[in-house]
Amino acid sequence: MAPPPQPKHATLLRGTQHVRHPAPHPRPHEPGDLVIYHGSITDRHGLYLAKPCDCFYCARADYLGSDDVRYRLTDPYSDDPNALTLRCVRRQSVTRSTANA
Q1: Range list of β-strands (E), the chain
Q2: How far apart, in whole angstroms, are the C-alpha atoms of residue 32 and residue 52?
Q3: pLDDT tens digits, 33-73
């Protein structure tokens, strides 16, 4: 028998209020993983290399203890693999590519 489908959000009952929490996200992407971007900038959807974002704002958020991981995405087919394409990309905006297997 197949396991029941996982909810996208877990619901916590606090008093008379329902508080929605995001379901646990799969493991974080490793630096250098191929990912598929499907975020809000639709003309940039596609395959990228993901590395932790090292901009000032993300470094400051990390220093202050935020566990919201953001990535910088680079073009895997570029002559310069460090050429920045997208930065500060949320984890929810990328999916690990099956080409990593």
Answers
A1: 9-14, 17-22, 33-37, 46-52, 70-74, 84-90, 94-96
A2: 9
A3: 899 999 999 999 999 999 888 899 988 988 898 888 899 99
